[in-house]
Amino acid sequence: MSPLRQLRFWFIGLIVAILVLYVLRSVLLPFVAGMAIAYLCDPIVDRLERWKFPRTVATLTVIGGALLILVVALVLLVPLLLAQIGGFVANSPAYAESLRGLFDVALGAVGDRIGQDQVAKLQAVASEQLAGVLGAVGDFLGGLLSRGLALVNLLSLLFITPIVAFYLLRDWDVLVSRIESLLPLHHADTIREQLRLIDRKLAGFVRGQASVSAILAFYYGLGLSLAGLEFGLAVGLSAGVISFIPYLGSVSGFVVAVGLALIQFDSLGRVGIVAGIFIVGQVVEGNFLTPKLVGGQVGLHPVWVIFALLAGGALLGLLGLLLALPVAAVASVLVAFAIEQYRGSVVYHGGREAAADEEPEA
Description:
By secondary structure, the protein is mainly α. It is built from 13 helices and no strands. Among the domains are: 92 residues; 63 residues. Helix content is 86%, strand content 0%. Helix 3 packs across helix 5. The longest helix has 60 residues. The chain is globular, with a radius of gyration of 26 Å.
């Protein structure tokens, strides 16, 4: 088969895979979630196997432990989070008034310079925008309370995902071997090398960043709660989880927490403590957690991560968010491989070689 026909074959296969994924997107969520769990837990099962555990027993131990941790976390955290979200919704009108009062004070300080007419216009615009933002947030959080966890297909996630994860995790090595046996013989070594690079990049980023997010969620939630900030647990946990998206979690958490602190506290010192929690968190994350747990050589560029998550969410919703990082890791490795091939090709060196051929002989 000529290189052109091979390229056409793989291109058609890619298009078919994308179409199948799009058509079946409504039922794939528990299967993709189960595959993600199996991928993340495979190193743990492999270690238990090295300790003489049978593969099935090791798989049951890991899946059972993960489910136990999840259930305990839900039992302990969900009532607190729902109570804090409900309190935020109930107090949002008072918060709006407090924020408008702070804004009026700030405008009063500069009113003599810009004129009272401009101050009145800014107050009107600020009140309208603030009411709209708080109304939208309140509606969203109220919807969460009324629908509970019905944002996703809860039954499929609770019952199908663990089953899929168990079978994939138990047979993971067999599945990998079968897939490797289907690789084109002429390019098998090259494909295996690229798959190893993809696995290294994806595992280093996802497992490392998940660890960073969990540590930050615990730190922010505990720190804001100890600082006496109302809804500090919800804000801190959300900031930690969202920190999976580079910079978004810390920035959004900082803005929300400091805004709530300005409303709730009369002392600027307590506001400074809330701000300091996020500053310390960022210093620790940037200098210790991320370099240690993620590593600079295996991470994905923040802009590439943000684009992948936004594109995946826009195309396939929650399923797209789950697939975004694996696809981004695959794409980054393949692009690097394509650039390497290009630099060694005639297309890259052709102009220079042609110019050398045209030089007159001495």
